[in-house]
Design a protein that fits this description.
4-stranded mixed β-sheet; alpha/beta; single chain; 14 strands
Length: 413
C-alpha cells in the first residue's frame, strides 16, 4: 500500500526538513522562500557538474543565506543548512523533497536519492509534467521497491526566477497563486496539499488524477505556439533583426495555435472521461490555456477578454524575451534551448502519446511537432503517430509500457 500521511501533519513548517534538488533558478528561489516561511531545515542535493562546489562557494560568503528579491524590493531570506553532490549527506531525514528540474534530469536524480529516502517521505516535481508519475513508478516502485515513499506533482512552478549571484541571490518575478497538486495516493493527498500550500503561501487545489496534471495546457502549448509564430518562416542563414518580447508581443497566430491545441487537449480529456465512465472528470480537472493564466496570476492580467490579451497584459510575464542566440547583426533561433529540447520531447510528445492511445486526432499538435522536429534534427511523429525513430527519446506513456486507455486510467502498465 502507498504511504499514509505522516503522523505529524507537518503543516507547521518549523518541524519540516525539506531537501531541494539542483542549482538552478527555481532551486535558489525555493531555499529563500521556504526558509523565509519558517522551514526548520533545508538541505540541497546538487549532483550536476560543479553545482555543489559553486553553491558552497557562494554560501560561504553569506553564512549560508540566500536572498530572493521580489517586486517592490521585498527581500526574503532562507538558509541552506547543507549542500552536497552526495545524496547520502543531504537526503536522509527529509520529509519533503522538491525537484524543480527539467524532465530529462529527473530520472537519474530520483535513482540516486531512492536508497536514501526516509520511510514516509514525499518527493515532488515542479512543474510535475513530462511523465513524472511514470518516472516515479519506474524508479521508486519497480527498481528500488520503495512503496513506502510517496510522490506528487505541482503545477505551475510557483514563481518565475532568475539567479543574480550563484548561491547567494535570486530575483523572483512574482509568486503565482492557486497551485494544483496531484499525489500518488488519495490518503496522502490532503497532507501533501497542506505542505505545498504552506511552503509557497498559496491556495492549493487537489487534482485527483496525476494524468490531469500531465495534460494541463502549459509549456507544451504556450512555448511552441509562440516560437512557431516567431520562427515558422525562418530559413537557415537568415538573421533576425530583433528579439521580440515573448509574451507582451504575442500575436494572433500564437494565440490561435494555443486555442487549437487547447481544443485538442479537451478532446483527449473527453475521451479519457468517457473511458472512466464519468468517474474522473478530466474536462473539469484540466483548465483552458487562458484560464490557467488568469488562475495563476490573479489581479495581474490587465485584459482577460481573450487568450491573446491574457498573455500580452499579464504583469507576471512582463520583460521576458524570446530564447534566441545573439550574433553579429541580430539574432538566430536556438533550437537547443529548453523551449525545444524540453517542451517538445518531454511535454508536447507526452500529450501526443496520450492522444494516440485514446484515439484522438491532433492536427495542430502534429503541425507544430513536424515543424519543430525538422529544425531539431529529430523524428518523433510519422504519418500523424508518435512512431518516429526518435520517439523512444520522449517521455510519452508508450515509453513506460502504456498502450491502452485502461492502463492510463489505472496508472500502471
Amino acid at each position: 500500500s502507498l504511504p499514509p500521511p505522516l503522523t505529524n501533519p507537518m503543516a507547521d513548517l518549523t518541524q519540516l526538513h525539506a531537501c531541494i534538488v539542483g542549482g538552478g533558478n527555481a532551486s535558489h528561489a525555493c531555499v529563500s522562500i521556504l526558509g523565509h516561511l519558517g522551514v526548520k531545515k533545508i538541505t540541497v542535493f546538487a549532483p550536476f557538474g560543479d553545482e555543489a562546489a559553486r553553491w558552497k562557494q557562494g554560501l560561504e560568503a553569506t553564512n549560508g543565506k540566500v536572498e530572493a528579491t521580489l517586486p517592490g524590493d521585498v527581500v526574503l531570506t532562507g538558509t541552506a543548512d547543507k549542500v552536497s553532490a552526495d545524496p547520502a549527506e543531504v537526503v536522509p531525514g527529509a520529509h519533503f523533497v522538491l525537484i524543480p528540474l527539467p524532465s530529462f534530469a529527473r530520472r537519474p536524480v530520483l535513482d540516486a536519492m531512492a536508497p536514501h529516502l526516509d520511510k514516509g517521505a514525499w518527493v515532488g516535481a515542479m512543474p510535475g509534467q513530462g511523465g513524472w508519475q511514470w518516472i516515479c513508478d519506474a524508479v521508486l516502485r519497480d527498481k528500488h521497491k520503495r512503496r513506502d515513499v510517496g510522490y506528487f506533482s505541482v503545477i505551475p512552478l510557483p514563481f518565475n526566477a532568475r539567479i543574480t549571484s550563484f548561491g547567494q541571490k535570486v530575483n523572483v518575478m512574482g509568486m503565482k497563486k492557486n497551485l494544483s497538486v496531484a499525489a500518488s495516493s488519495r490518503e496522502g493527498a490532503a497532507h501533501v496539499c497542506a505542505l505545498v500550500s504552506a511552503c509557497f503561501d498559496a491556495p492549493v487545489e487537489n487534482v485527483e488524477h496525476t494524468l490531469a496534471i500531465t495534460l494541463f495546457p502549459r509549456n507544451q502549448v504556450i512555448h511552441p505556439s509562440r516560437l512557431y509564430e516567431i520562427l515558422h518562416e525562418w530559413k537557415p542563414g537568415q538573421i533576425l533583426k530583433e528579439n521580440p518580447r515573448f509574451y507582451e508581443d504575442l500575436g494572433d497566430l500564437a494565440a490561435n495555435t494555443m486555442i487549437e491545441m487547447d481544443k485538442e487537449t479537451q478532446l483527449i480529456c473527453k475521451a479519457l472521461e468517457e473511458a472512466s465512465h464519468g468517474d474522473i472528470l478530466f474536462t473539469k480537472l484540466v483548465p483552458s490555456v487562458g484560464g490557467c493564466v488568469i488562475k495563476w496570476y490573479p489581479g495581474q492580467v490587465g485584459d482577460e477578454s481573450t487568450v491573446k490579451t491574457c498573455f500580452r497584459t499579464n504583469k507576471g510575464y512582463a520583460g521576458l524575451f524570446t530564447p534566441l542566440k545573439q550574433v553579429e547583426g541580430g539574432w538566430l533561433p536556438d533550437f537547443t534551448s529548453r523551449y525545444f529540447t524540453e517542451d517538445i520531447p518531454n511535454n508536447l510528445c507526452v500529450v501526443k502519446g496520450v492522444a494516440d492511445i485514446v484515439g484522438v486526432a491532433t492536427p495542430t499538435m502534429d503541425k507544430i511537432l513536424l515543424w519543430a522536429q525538422a529544425h531539431m534534427g529529430k523524428e518523433y511523429i510519422v504519418d500523424g503517430k508518435l512512431k518516429g525513430k526518435d520517439a523512444k527519446e520522449t517521455s510519452a506513456p508508450q515509453q513506460f509500457g502504456f498502450h491502452t486507455v485502461e492502463q492510463l486510467l489505472r496508472g500502471s502498465a
